[in-house]
Amino acid sequence: MEGKLLEMFEVGPCEDDYQLGFLIGQRFCNQIRSRLAGDLILQNQLLPFARTPHAQPLLKALSETNQKKFPRYWAELLGTADGSGVPVLDIILVNFRKEILPFISKTTMNSNADTTDDCSDVLIVGDSMAIAAHNEDANVALVGHTYLIKGKLSNGLSFIAYTYAGELPSCAFGLNSQGLAFTLNSVPPVEDEIVPAGIGRNFVSRDLLEATSTADALARIRSSEVSVGHSYNLIDIQKRMILNVETASKSRVSVHEVGTTPFFHANMYLHLQVQQVHDENSISRQKRAAVLPQGSKTDFLSLLGDTEDTKYPIYMTGPTLYTLCTTVIDLDERTLTIIEGNPKYGKVSHVFSMSSNELNLKLVNHAEGTHL
């Protein structure tokens, strides 16, 4: 299965956040409409649930809570809906899918639509190498339905965000002109750990794109009272530092600083004490990563490209989950590289400079077929 070439849209500064969202929605209206039409989770679970009386209080509270906390990003979301010409409800549902799905009765869940998102990261900060490598895994409905947003804000800050069609930038990974970057991993707390109508994870990650320092990024994460859990890998080029931050509802946060021992993170809590769903996929990937070489960048790419376990491979090719791309953030080279296809073969599509002396992020290479 091959997706379309990953496109980048440069936008901003805009007169307001609604216009930013509107221009993104307008530019990618075809991808957004196609994604929504083919998204089985939206069509078979979220939309039917949204039409029930039981859903109304949850949707109303989610909308009000997030609009109050993040009015700018809420305006951006509305602009995306209007710009793409799709119902606002559809855009709200895909942006809050992780906050809504736990409250849909299991008897009404469509068994053909897997609700799991999976990503894998391997991280190290050693004497000779400081790297964050990340597989962006998602439902196959997202293949061909992602794009890059290069946004410039009126305050001069720029960001680049890998974005799912119709969602806020970025629920995947991003970087900004302050020398900060992040990648994300879903983590599945049990139902009792989930608080309804909290802050949505898409809004937290959108906020991280505007963080000015690691301390600021942590403050933004800590100040958001989320519904469900998430794992953030914060990368600070200036400080040559990587933090893995695991979060849960009720303002629970645990921070682990990555050091010389390679740190592999799939989709399970590793250091925050939270009751979590037993996820065979993550457990399998975690065990497989533990026996693979992790001594070089090439080893990291081979690990993320591993398909030895046919049931739960680290590099996924369907039928339900698919590795959309791999990104490698090199803290010493100060670059973020996007690789399409199996990362073992190093098919580079984009390289972005994160050099501290550049006010604007610079696309330094965009040659499909270039190898690491």
From TrEMBL:
<dbReference type="InterPro" id="IPR047794">
    <property type="entry name" value="C45_proenzyme-like"/>
</dbReference>
<dbReference type="InterPro" id="IPR005079">
    <property type="entry name" value="Peptidase_C45_hydrolase"/>
</dbReference>
<protein>
    <recommendedName>
        <fullName>Peptidase C45 hydrolase domain-containing protein</fullName>
    </recommendedName>
</protein>
<dbReference type="InterPro" id="IPR047801">
    <property type="entry name" value="Peptidase_C45"/>
</dbReference>
<feature type="domain" description="Peptidase C45 hydrolase">
    <location>
        <begin position="128"/>
        <end position="344"/>
    </location>
</feature>
<dbReference type="Pfam" id="PF03417">
    <property type="entry name" value="AAT"/>
</dbReference>
